[in-house]
Design brief:
- The chain is built from 10 helices and 7 strands.
- The chain has a domain at 68-83 and 106-239: Endonuclease Chain A (Endonuclease, Chain A, 2-Layer Sandwich), CATH 3.30.870.
- The protein is an alpha/beta fold.
- The longest helix has 21 residues, at 219-239.
- The chain has helices at 10-24, 28-34, 39-46, 54-60, 85-92, 99-112, 129-133, 139-152, 199-215, 219-239, and strands spanning 5-7, 69-74, 122-128, 158-163, 177-180, 184-188, 193-196.
- A 7-stranded mixed β-sheet has the order 1-7-6-5-2-3-4.
């Protein structure tokens, strides 16, 4: 890929978070309070003195509030905006958090999900089939998670598609990514977050997203598939 694609270092990420906060017109104290952290810690993150964790970034970088169109491709997990509380807890439990901090962080992520009901925004999600079968939580909880996707897919501003394993593919699901307003793409790797801003590079991800969208199931076909997966989980739960 060409253009400006980079790993965000501590200072760069802090500056980006500060710029986003200022663009939103929010005071540092208000952002820190909503992100469940002290204003002091937020200040250190924004000035590059402290490296933010993935959770810190998620809580302070509420980019969804500043965009009109989101396109998210996920090949590993159910997208955060679509996760149930139990699924969120299972994901966040991998981090070294105390129970109180874990509970607050879960609450913050659930609060972010309010963007799903904002009719002024278009939210497009593409998920690969293995995501729906990967056992993050128990069979019963996975059934609930899949059922939530079915329900959310009926909202008029949300488009959820699933790439089935049975579909012939011309591309490879290299990694998950998020496109916001055709202006930026963020890719979270194991060790860093990559930010793509060059229009030529952004267009590469747009084409990749559109390619998978063309082979994915949508609407009633997608919901029928999800309901079948949900029923598989429910039958498994009944036999245990």
């Amino acid at each position: 890929m060409v253009g400006e694609t980079r790993h965000v270092r501590r200072g760069e990420l802090g500056a980006a978070l500060r710029a986003l906060r200022q663009a939103s017109g929010k005071e540092a104290k208000a952002v820190a309070r909503s992100a469940v952290m002290s204003a002091s810690k937020l200040g250190k993150i924004e000035t590059g003195k402290v490296a933010p964790s993935a959770i810190d970034v998620e809580q302070t970088r509420s980019l969804e509030a500043h965009m009109a169109l989101l396109r998210l491709f996920q090949s590993a997990l159910v997208p955060g905006l679509l996760q149930t509380p139990e699924y969120i807890r299972a994901i966040l439990s991998r981090h070294d958090l105390g129970e109180d901090a874990l509970t607050r962080t879960i609450g913050a992520r659930i609060e972010r999900q309010q963007v799903l009901y904002d009719s002024t925004k278009e939210l497009h999600f593409i998920i690969t089939e293995p995501v729906l079968r990967w056992r993050i939580v128990s069979a019963a909880r996975m059934a609930e998670q899949v059922d939530r996707l079915v329900s959310l897919s009926r909202l008029p501003n949300i488009d959820i598609r699933v790439v089935p394993l049975s579909a012939q593919q011309q591309d490879i699901a290299n990694h998950s990514f998020v496109i916001r307003d055709d202006r930026t793409v963020t890719v979270e790797t194991i060790h860093a977050e990559v930010v793509v801003t060059d229009p030529r590079d952004v267009s590469v991800y747009v084409r990749k997203f559109e390619g998978f969208a063309s082979t994915a199931l949508a609407g009633n076909d997608m919901r029928a598939m999800l309901e079948g997966i949900r029923d598989d989980f429910l039958r498994e739960q009944e036999t245990n």
